[in-house]
Amino acid sequence: MAERSFKAEVEHLRLGAGETFTGEGILAITKALLENGVGYVGGYQGAPISHLMDVLADAEELLTELGVRFEANASEAAAAAMLAASVHYPIRGAVTFKGSVGVNVASDALANLASSGVTGGALVIVGEDYGEGSSIMQERSHAFAMKSQFWLLDPRPNLPSIVKAVKQGFELSEASNTPVMLMVRIRSCHVTGSFETRDNQRPPLTVREALSEPRRDFNRVVLPPMSFAHEQDKVNNRWPAAEKFIIENGINERFGPKDARVGIVCQGGMYNGVIRALQRLGLADILGQTDVPLYVLNATYPLVESEFMEFCQGKDAVLVIEEGQPEFIEQALSTMLYRAGSNVRLHGKDMLPMAGEYTGQVMLDGVTAFLRAHAPDMLPGQVRAPNKPAPATPDLSSTVPIRPPGFCTGCPERPIFAAMKLVEKELGRHQISADIGCHLFAALPPFEIGGQTMGYGLGPASNAAFDGGGEKRAISIIGDGGFWHNGLSTSIGNMVFNKSDSLAIVVDNYYSAATGGQDIPSSRADNPTKATNNPITDAVKGIGVKWVRQVDRTYDVARMRQVIRDALTTEETGPKVIVASSECMLNRQRREKPQRAKAIKDGRRIEAPRFGVDEDVCTGDHACIRLSGCPSLSLKRLDDPLRDDPVVAIDHTCVGCGNCGEVAEAAVLCPSFYRADVVHNPTGTERWFARLRTRLIDWLQTRRANRRLTFVETA
Amino acid sequence: MSVETALAPRVADARMGQVIKLAVLAVGGQGGGVLSGWIEKLARAQGYACQTTSVAGVAQRTGATIYYIEMAPVAAGETPVFSLAPASGDVDILIAAEIMEAGRAIMRGFVTPDRTTLIASTHRVLAVSEKMIPGDGIADADEVIAAAETAAQRAVLLDMERLAVDKGSVISASLFGGLAGSGALPFAETAFEDAIRAGGKGVEASLRAFRAAAAAARDGEQPAAPAAPAAPVAALVGPQRLQKDWEALEAQLRNLPGAVAELALPGLRKVVDFQDLAYGREYLDRLERVVVTDDGTHGFALSREAAKYIANAMAYDDVVRVADRKTRAARFERIRREMFVKDDKVMQLTEFLHPRAEEIAGLLPARLGAKVEASPKWMARLDRWFSKGRRIRTDTMRGFLMLYLIGGLRGWRRRTHRHALEQAHLDDWLTLVLRTSEKDYQLGVEVVRTRRLVKGYSDTHTRGLSKFDRVLAMLPALQGREDAADWLRRLREAALLDEEGKALDGAMRTVESFAAA
Q1: Is the link from the previous residue into A155 a cis peptide, with omega within 30 of 0?
Q2: Residue pair B157/B166 in contact by the 8 Å Cβ criterion
Q3: Among partner residues B80, B89, B351, which is closest to A287 by beta-carbon distance?
Q4: Alpha helices in B387-501 (DSSP H)
Q5: Which keywords accompany this UniProt record (chain B) (predicted)?
Q6: Does one domain contain both B88 and B197?
Q7: Do B138 and A625 touch (CB under 8 A)?
Q8: Domain of B298, in residue numbers
Q9: Tens of pLDDT along A95-134?
Q10: What does A497-528 look like in DSSP terms, one character per residue?
């Protein structure tokens, strides 16, 4: 079960011709796929397109009705490989994953796909994770389009434009026999808006029907001599066909006056930011009518020389606004001007920063610098001669703490890392490599475990140089998501084959949790359309690992520590694998909370655990926080004039996972923690016993209180 | 002015002034998505064009998140071009779901005096970096509040978290109320309520929190804050005879200078509560040893600190104290209250304890205990017998009695090994204090304050003690210097910065370097 359910929204996907859809970009894309007769869809989750996968999964019923096959692919490579169906068959297919990491993983399949060329429209929807909020290295997917010669659409970030880009993407793909990549940035995925819908279309040829009549075209096989022919075909036929289609269908757009001395060229995705800068300079109105001509590249690859040269005609200078580096578009456009012997000045990264997100301020500064240089008369007086310095903002940089992401309240991964910290205290520090997934948060305070991450499923593989072992064994961590993505072969298989003497800890939280809680082969849920409940230990043993330990409750910090210690000290050689399993608390709460509330309401007996700290026993050293970092474990200042440091307090968001108590116990920290299990709807006997105990305890307490002085605080 | 006229600025589109730009900064998990959903629904229902975007990324796991909304009144068929991200200096309404997030917004230039209405919750969600410091690492919210008041055109600062929790709701509802009450959006409050109703989830609770916050924001004042932490009054309960003896002690305390008595009273209570009245008398005797050397020219700083830290040193954290504290009636009541346990429910209480050999040896008679502790063989044996994690159910007779009996060992305590250790340590320290303050009063004060480093249990306690020793070991290098007190303070503060004492090592190296020079 995914973190977010789109069951309600999916109903909007049934809207017909002439109706209006209002909602998020992600849903608009899904609707557009259906309107354009897509035959099969797939992909691999990851921000910012996780929700697109969730929408597709939740829409499976509708997809089936339309004869559309949905596949939750094992990886981005698998997703891209699925587009092979469009190579020989006139079936439209679309897959989605995040850029640029997903494109990296998929690049082998994408290169082969691009070489073969396609018959049916093939669309790769890439959620470009760049700029604020990104969780990955900052690179561009653009380079992949260039190196493999497939086309890249970067539509303006509004729903009608994105929906149109899906339609045009399929058509462009078919017109040029080339796969098309449709790029949506993180904010475009979540932008809200409206567009007029059309009827959903059944694919003219479904994948089921295609199976009855297999086809193959020898010319599309990627082997010499055909592969040489493919390269020629790309350059001589497909590219010109693409350019022709782009021009004829007006994929790139022009705004503003025809004649002006200056102009701006921008990626489609940058359009709103450019308009906002112009609006702030008084050069565009609320509806985007601009005084500065714009040439908006909704297709950023290939670039159409004739269109660009025409735009430049009569201009002194143009500014290219291209986010990210290197500046592929700017270089290409410069070449065009140079080859034509043009006098038009081209600006871009000389006026805008080479790296980083083009935020509102960056855009405003860049556009202002350009106009100041080439059309200062267009700038408002305030900008030309500011008579008031911008107000100074108070400097809070030393006060406001950074807020890196961390594990959720009750996360079952926390005790694994607490145990590792404790082992570290006994056996010293180890070489630790991490993978991709929630567990990577352990690299941040308070755990600070693991210093490298080479990619999804590559945690153990990235320790390969240390496989020979030494005085200490190398440790690697891999999540269940990464394990099934490719870790089983690339990492564990690699360890077995190379007789690795190191430890791999598989963090099994029953889901692909970091991407939003999607099911994977080892998930414990019953999923009607997917095969779940495939134990990781079986897979690990199957591939040849002899030393395998399963921990079924990661919260048992003492056991967790024992198993890790054993793995690091055992005489046995060969790879050691620990599968540490406990359900992702976020998903578990989402599943159990409504059930529990209902049970309490129905009068059934329910124990609700929550932890607490005795504030007069806590001494304010916060060692427990350094071994936990749970969001519900916080601090409070006491009124006591004799106390200096804030004490630990557990707030009402505690889910009673027990980690803090277990850690306090295993690490011999302090006796402050207690667990209170509140029994809702207790049985009669239980109540009777409880009353009896309370009476006895009361009597003992009163007895002692009567013999001593007590200071009862009355605030 | 003349310059501007000469340049004749172009006339900007007046309708741009009608675009309302609103950003929400929250901590992941605070419901920023729900809030922006409400705002969007509200704007659309009022005939505005509206666009929402968000950047959650991995930030949904307790990191900082940002939502951005633009809206404008439009004629049918018109589609404004809105921005997808807030720009510095160009935000009309900034909602911060936590005060440090308001600080972050100010730093990013999203709050400016010419245009921004800031609606912020004054409560804190502490960052890990603040919580993991062994001392007090909590960032100063007052600094942000002061900055907010100057940076914003208008600031609505309320404890939105408490407003929401008090009404059984979550902060998104009270922030929405704050937005309504601020009047920053040109919509009636009923329209806001309709947006909540349209959401359909937890409507009644949301509306309660919404209304409370709207009223508070409208009136521009804080709703009755929780009673300011006025010094808690301690009522005395106990047998008549003991009460009389207590009064005698109190009389003795009244002889102390006022500034000292102020802290000596809670100190006296603490040690009497820890042990008995005789122990209280010892406390006052010890304190008087300090007071007689203090002539008041420094406002009795030395004696005040001594009143505080002697009490803390005497009421050390031993097994008996923990067991006593855990079995008191007041504690049971407090937990039942905090866990919302009503009469129709039953509460089970589990304590997480892990006694070590040291704790057992500490309970033995002083001489025997010292011998046992010196014998690795015996310590290993004790470790084998006792050292393991124990879960004690103090709601059952068996568990309760076990702790109750240990808690009753107060009479025995004075004879124990641990007590002897603590007393010796205390007296050494006090002697050092007096010897130091004689020559350098301020340095003496800092020696007293160094006692703050001794805290925690088990390894933590050992580490604290070692830091205490290391800091005081620097005394000879510092004595005689004009800035000696200042340096000792710096050493202490460094010792509280991290667990391993890296900052302390650095500070010590500095001291050593100038001592060598």
Answers
A1: no
A2: no
A3: B80
A4: 397-407, 410-413, 417-439, 441-449, 458-473, 475-478, 484-495
A5: Oxidoreductase, Pyruvate
A6: yes
A7: no
A8: 240-314
A9: 999 999 999 999 999 999 999 999 999 999 999 999 988 8
A10: HTT--SEEEEEE-SSBTTTT-B--TT--S--T
The SS3 call for residue A20 is strand
Q: Which of B54, B273, B345 sits opposite A682 (nearest CB)?
A: B345
Distance separating alpha carbons of residues A293 and A313, to the nearest angstrom: 12
Distance between CA atoms of B514 and B517, rounded to whole angstroms? 5
Same domain, B413 and B457: no
CATH number of the domain residue B55 falls in: 3.40.920.10
| pLDDT of B160 over the 70 cut | yes
Does B335 reach chain A within 8 Å, measured CB to CB? yes
Are B429 and B408 members of one domain? Answer: no
Does B267 reside within a domain?
yes
* Phi, psi (degrees; rounded to nearest 5) at B73: -70, 135
* Mean pLDDT value of segment B272-276: 96
Highest mean pLDDT among A342-356, A447-461, B457-471: A342-356
Residue B501 maps to a domain? yes
Number of domains observed in the structure of chain B = 4
The answer to whether residue B4 is domain-embedded is: no
CB contact under 8 A, A401 and B129: yes
Residues B193 and B244 in one domain: no
State the Cα–Cα distance between residues A364 and A356, nearest whole angstrom.
15
Is B10 close to A610, i.e. CB distance below 8 A? no
Pair B397, B454 in one domain: no
Identify whether residues B495 and B450 lie together within a single domain.
yes
Residue B288 lies in a domain: yes
Residue A616 forms contact with B (CB below 8 Å):
yes
Q: What does A357-397 look like in DSSP terms, one character per residue?
A: ---HHHHHHHHHHHHHHH-GGGS-HHHHS--SPPPPPP--T
Helix (H, G, I), strand (E, B) or coil at A74: coil
Statement to judge: residues B459 and B387 lie in one domain: no
d(Cα B148, Cα B154) in Å, to the nearest integer?
9
B280 Cα to chain A: minimum distance (Å): 12
Same domain, B28 and B168: yes
Average pLDDT over residues A452-462: 95
Domains of chain A in sequence order: 15-248 (3.40.50.970), 253-382 (3.40.50.920), 414-587 (3.40.50.970), 605-705 (3.30.70)
* Nearest beta carbon to residue B239 from set A620, A664, A706: A706
Of B417, B450, B473, the last residue of a domain is B417
Residue where a domain terminates, one of B258, B285, B314: B314
DSSP A141-168: THHHHHHHT-EEE---SSHHHHHHHHHH
What confidence tens digit (pLDDT) does each residue in A461-506 have?
A: 999 999 998 999 999 999 999 999 999 999 999 999 999 999 999 9
Judge if the upstream peptide bond of residue A302 is cis by omega within 30 degrees of 0.
yes
